Amino acid sequence: MKSVLRVFIVAALVASCTSLRDKEDDPKFADLTQKFLDEFWEVHPSYASQLGLSKYDAILEIPDEDNRKKRTAFYEKYVERFKAVEEDELSFAQRTDRELILNQLEGSLWSYNEFRPFEWNPSAYNIGSAVSSVLEKEKRPLNDRIKDISEKLLKSPEYYQAAKNNIKKPTKEHTRLAIKQTKGLIKYLKGDVKKKIGESTLSAREKSTARQRVGSAAAAAQRYLTFLRGVLAKPKQVEGFRSFRIGDEMYAKKFKYDLQIELSPLELYRTALRTKEEVRSKMFEKAIELYPKYFGEKLPPKDRQDVISSIIEKVSKEHAKPGEFVETVRKQIPELSSFIKEKDLLTLDPSRPLKVRETPLYERGFAGASVDSPGPFDKDRETYYNVTPLDNMTKKQKESWLREYNDYTLQILNIHEAIPGHYAQLVYSNKSNSLVKSVFRNGPTVEGWAVYSERMMLEQGYGKDSPELWLMYYKWFLRVVTNTILDYEIHNKDLSKKEAMKMMTEEAFQEKAEAEGKWRRATVSQVQLASYFAGFNAIYDLREEMKKEKGEDFNLKQFHETFLSFGSAPIKEIKKLML
């Protein structure tokens, strides 16, 4: 009887393992995916150009009703085709590609049909990135780039006319952002772009034509700027303003399509509330440890908040000079690379250097620092770390900003944005075997990896276990957690600016300049601020799960490189592939 039972168990295990074994890639699905991508570039030429497909560099699509109908028909056609695919016939990797594609298509249909930001977000209309993505392809001959930009800009008056036609009940906040960025765009066209025309070896006639078209584009942008200023002065011409708050129903849908995580908005919000108190407790521990160093034998205050604030006040005084902020960032990058190599945490590609530069004018007003990385079709293009200088701030604002980004916090920022954060993740993403996973980047994966990198670097000894660095890390991480709470409460609970500022400056110890900037950002974005905490939680939990599973065989570098090898797919899909 025992031998019969044993045979039965073995047979069952074999059958189970066979069913779990990965299938070969389905060639029919591969063909469908390729057809989809080929058509996707045709209806999204500007995005194709930004990803490195230079055949689309001269095209500027007009954001009018005809364009939306064309895209909607494309989305509906391929939703039907990909839904008809039998998932059981696909390899694990193809299943995740199918999920990514369907999410992209269904999310786009929802955005066009229900969310409709093309009506209320004037800042969505900006040709700056469409021009710069061509101009910065330094591996291409400059003459070819100028010719393509000249051709592209032919349609800029039509582009901005369509933008004006689309605007209906915008938000005041997006209108103000559009004004700021359009002013920057005009300076960029008249400055950097015209300068590059002069550096080319085109004929005098070709240069004259290119300059005229740049001038025409700047004039179109100027008319749009005048229109936006008129909207602020007389909003009735566009049916008045709407609230920037999107409400719980829209928030839940955008959360679903943008984040693709296993938690609901409410579950993530509640997790953030619990984490907030845990982090504040850790900050108190570090502050008590540091108190004698900064206050000698003086007894610390009885109130926990006052203890933490008093130490942060002291530590934050150590910061760069206002005019040296960008250069200070630039000098720290080699130190991070050296630490990664020394600890063997990740393989960095020396052929893909990171360049620190001042944020282009047309991109300012959203974030103080960001990474501009090449797409999978243009891997040789430079990767830029955009850092916004403090030129337009008052003396008081500069001091507040620098105290927020002090000598310790600045290191965390550079880990996040540069190495091994966004820069490294996006280099790996471009090398993914799945083009789909590189093209449709998931926010929690991209931002979560950057936040995970911060914790991982300190865990591995970066900063030599400095209590000041750990305190500032927890302050920084508390900001990540607070972003999630802020974003949820603004759109779901009508959080006021006064309440938000108190939450950020008092409960999260942020400087006023940082909090003001975050409030502005929260009013012109939705869900994105929650992607950092959502992604960090998922990646950190996955690592700890794999540590338990592998025991002594767990290798941190192997975990990092395996995770990154799946491109920018949603973490829940990467988890399936890794486990």
Short description, anyone?
The chain is mainly α and 579 residues long.
Q: What would your notes on this structure say?
A:
The chain has 579 residues and is an all-alpha fold. It contains 26 helices and 3 strands. It has helices spanning 2-20, 27-43, 45-50, 65-83, 92-115, 117-120, 128-135, 142-153, 156-166, 172-199, 204-233, 247-259, 265-295, 304-315, 325-343, 395-404, 409-417, 422-430, 435-439, 443-459, 467-492, 497-507, 512-523, 531-550, 556-565, 571-578; strands at residues 354-358, 369-372, 383-387. The protein has a 3-stranded mixed beta sheet, covered by helices on one side. The longest helix is centred in the middle third of the chain and has 31 residues, at 265-295. The protein is globular and about 75 Å long.
